Amino acid sequence: MARPFYPHEADDPDLDWLISNFLYERPDYFPVDSGMLPLVLIPVTDGFEPLDPEHVDMPVTEFYEEESE
After folding, report:
1. How is the chain classified by DSSP, letter by letter?
2. Given pLDDT bands bounded at 50, 70 and 90, which one contains residue 11?
3. Model's pTM, two decimal places?
4. What's the rounded Cα separation, in Å, for the pair 69 and 44?
5. C-alpha to C-alpha distance for 35 and 37, rounded to whole angstroms
6. Contact by Cβ (8 Å): 29, 44
7. Interval 13-49: pLDDT, tens
8. Are 5 and 39 in contact (CB under 8 A)?
9. Is there a domain that residue 37 lies in?
10. φ, ψ for residue 53 (rounded to 5)?
């Protein structure tokens, strides 16, 4: 998707349909949910694992230190 959308469009059912349809037709994409940030859809590749919710607000360096233990 190459078009930005604006806050007043967030409640638009057409935008909801567009995103839902995109994710339905492309199950290899993962939405990054992070509050008020722009909508981000990333392709899922081999070896990709979403973080557990407990790690979401953890600094990256702390996450990697925990993984290496």
Report:
1. ------GGGTT-HHHHHHHHHHHHH-TTEEEE--TTSPPEEEE--TT--PPPGGGTTS-HHHHHHHHH-
2. confident
3. 0.51
4. 26
5. 6
6. yes
7. 888 888 889 889 988 888 877 666 667 787 877 666 6
8. yes
9. yes
10. -55, -30
Residue span of the structural domain in which 42 resides: 7-68
Give the residues across from 29 on adjacent strands: 43
Number of domains in the chain: 1
Domain for residue 44, yes or no?
A: yes
pLDDT band at 55 (very low <50, low <70, confident <90, very high): low
Asked if residue 15 is part of any domain, the answer here is: yes
2 within some domain:
no
Rounded to whole angstroms, the Cα distance separating 68 from 35 reads 29
